[in-house]
Amino acid sequence: MFPFFKKKQAPANVPEIIPIQEEGGISIAKCWTGKEDADIVVNMTDASKHQNSVISIVGSHGQGKDFTGKLILYRLCKQGAQATILTDGLSREEYGYMCDQLGGKNVIIGEENSHINLFDIRKPKEGSRKCSVLTRKVQELLTVFRAMYPEMTPEQAGLLDALLYRLYKVKGITYDNASLLVEDSDQYKEFPTIEDFYTTIKLAHLKELDDFTNVLSQFVDGPYGWFNHKTDVDWDSPFLVLDFMKYRGQIEKDSTAKDFMMAYCFEILSERMQDEADKKAILMRDVFFGENRDVMKNAPFMLERDTTLSWSKHLCQNAMPCDCTVITVTSVFNDGIDDAFLHEIMADSDVQVYHKIFSHLVPNVAKACHLSEKNAKYVSELQRGHVIIFADGKWTWSDVKADDEEYKMMTEYPSDIRVYGRDWQ
């Protein structure tokens, strides 16, 4: 008399459905075992389970990648992780509500009252590393300045190395990690700024650094003086969003400034990763193949690939010792995609999440990600919300589900963003 309820089942021709359950992890999707939903649970910072702590999410435009990335990040936040997001625009619309609910800060590079000093150093968790954080910081700063000044010679690098140590010593910061803090307190000492570094170089009267100093001056009081500020953002914010799109538009034709800005962003991510918080999470959204409102008209833009790729690999390869989970979200929507570039992104991920990829793009993606013909076919036949996950050496079909509270967190707009139907008709 009563209609039978349609039995839930996976789509035809998908990989075997294998639930993955790692102790202390978070659910990234659900799979149907034939009787009930089973969570796909991964603990990315468990070195006994994973070689690295990176989750890479790949798919075509509009297939739910951002939702999946945000959901994984939010679930990590609910476990107490300190979250940092690097994104290329629409940060208030995409992350504003979550940011406000979690007491975070939205930093739009180029706007006032949203500065983070490049020279700041975060103290690592006690006992996590025996090496000097100042040594690490100096090496990373030299990498940032090489992005700004690619002609840097080994001789110039050696001079800048010595001057950076001198610069920090003036502020009372040495190889001893304890020197980062004011004695008998938890307060950080005052860190130098770009202007302090510029002055230190000028006072050294080294002709070998004249060309470098001329380039650096643009970031002191020149057109890119925004970077020369002390930090006015809470480093310990539980949720920090870095949005570089507005500033990128201002420096579109200046490759030096673009490379410096990207290196700056990744250096901030690196410091957040080093922080002494017990758990950290980083989400990099379309940092590799950018996506914006005019994407279909203007085709994808690539950020400065050498800078972006080398820094992202640095973060991915050093995340696990820092108890940090890295999530990358990458759109593929053009048949001119750089196969080698996508391969490098996926090579550092121990868990890969594939959303649907349009059939004409599948050959390129399959080649870049070393997908078998069968697995590539699975990816091309996915429906929105369904994913193929590669984890623990297994391929399995799943779907991404959020409960009501999570769904609101993923989709609600903050109060300062006017929304048709909510704020006006």
Listing every helix as H and every strand as E from the N terminus to the C terminus, the arrangement reads EEEHEHEHHHHEHHEHHEHEHHEEH
Helix content: 25-40%
Number of DSSP helices? 14
Nearest-angstrom radius of gyration?
A: 23 Å
Return the structural class: alpha/beta
Strand order of the largest sheet: 5-6-4-7-8-3-9-10-11
Shape: globular
Overall mean pLDDT score? 83
Task: Give the low-pLDDT segments.
Answer: 1-8, 289-305
Largest sheet: 9 strands, mixed
What does this protein structure show overall?
The structure is a single chain. With 425 residues, this protein is α/β, with parallel strands linked by helices. The chain contains 14 helices and eleven strands. The chain has helices at 65-78, 91-101, 133-148, 154-170, 194-204, 210-216, 245-250, 255-274, 295-298, 305-318, 339-347, 362-369, 373-380, 404-411, and strands at residues 26-32, 37-42, 54-59, 82-87, 105-108, 239-243, 280-285, 324-331, 351-354, 386-391, 394-399. The chain is globular, with a radius of gyration of 23 Å.
